[in-house]
């Protein structure tokens, strides 16, 4: 697979985002932003255990009108160099950016299990992530609710000036992720991302990109999925990742991709 293949993937994802943005039933939303800080400990050839911790803040406008935060962490285990399983959990808080003093609209505690499969073809690297989530909500009025969700993400990386993503590498990244709700609507959300990243040294990565996130409802009368009103939103994403390395990782044959845990 060559650069043209990855470019085609980017164009396809972009077309999906534009189609969502043009849906008549979805009024135009202001651009927002996601600010993400991640610490990762990937598994290695000599130590299969790994983990991560992440903090995230989201704003309704670009770098202003804060309303949402995430704190999460988890562990991973490499069954095979290209087959990783993981368990993680987190706390998610949503507020009204116009009235932060009133406290969160809801707090969510989340637990999830996932498997990640990676493929390497020349320069193009593909990652398939399958995740099952258990979600406990507590709303401002005291109500509680439990939900489950299934997610699948196809993530692609393309280093531009090296064959691998290593210190001094500029790389492109794109993904599309679908969210499925067993209670309905089954097709709950679609998230499309495209961006560029740079690895400064063996520890530090920076990614800057764009994400379009759209929530859907199924309308039986029309027999099709439609965007919920005011639900689709474009965001600027800035992600700084610090990677911790296991000791004695020299000679590791399989590169570990700087994937976003979100």
The value of Rg in angstroms is: 19 Å
* Mean of all residue-level pLDDT scores: 86
Examine the secondary-structure arrangement and name the CATH architecture: Beta Barrel
Q: Detail the poorly predicted runs.
A: 17-24
Which class of secondary structure composition applies to the elements? mainly beta
Signal peptide: 1-21
InterPro entries: DUF2490 (IPR019619)
Protein name: DUF2490 domain-containing protein
Keywords: Signal
Itemize the secondary structure elements and their pairings.
Elements: H1 3-21, E1 32-41, E2 49-61, E3 64-80, E4 83-94, E5 106-121, E6 124-139, E7 144-159, E8 170-180, E9 187-199, E10 204-219, E11 224-227, E12 233-243
Parallel strand pairs: 1-12
Antiparallel strand pairs: 1-2, 2-3, 3-4, 4-5, 5-6, 6-7, 7-8, 8-9, 9-10, 10-11, 10-12
Keywords: Signal
Signal peptide: 1-21
InterPro entries: DUF2490
Summary tags:
12 strands; mainly beta; globular; Porin; 59% strand; 262 residues; eleven-stranded mixed β-barrel
């Amino acid at each position: 697979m060559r650069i043209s293949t990855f470019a085609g993937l980017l164009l396809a994802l972009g077309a999906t985002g534009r189609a969502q943005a043009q849906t008549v039933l979805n009024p135009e939303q202001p651009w927002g932003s996601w600010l993400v800080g991640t610490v990762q400990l990937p598994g290695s050839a000599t130590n299969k255990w790994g983990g991560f911790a992440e903090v995230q803040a989201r704003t309704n406008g670009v770098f202003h009108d804060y309303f949402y935060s995430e704190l999460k962490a988890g562990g991973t285990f490499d069954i095979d160099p290209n087959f990783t399983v993981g368990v993680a959990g987190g706390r998610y808080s949503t507020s009204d950016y116009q009235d932060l003093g009133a406290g969160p609209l809801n707090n969510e505690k989340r637990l999830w299990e996932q498997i990640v499969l990676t493929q390497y073809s020349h320069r193009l690297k593909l990652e398939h992530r399958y995740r099952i989530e258990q979600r406990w909500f507590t709303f401002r009025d005291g109500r509680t609710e439990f939900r489950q969700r299934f997610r699948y993400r196809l993530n692609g990386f393309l280093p531009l000036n090296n064959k691998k993503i290593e210190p001094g590498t500029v790389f492109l990244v794109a993904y599309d992720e679908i969210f499925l709700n067993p209670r309905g609507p089954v097709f709950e959300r679609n998230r499309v991302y495209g961006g560029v990243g740079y690895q400064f040294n063996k520890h530090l990565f920076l990614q800057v990109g764009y994400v379009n996130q759209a929530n859907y409802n199924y309308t039986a009368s029309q027999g099709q999925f439609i965007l919920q009103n005011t639900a689709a939103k474009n965001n600027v994403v800035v992600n700084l990742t610090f990677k911790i390395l296991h000791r004695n990782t020299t000679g590791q044959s399989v590169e570990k991709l700087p994937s976003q845990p979100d």
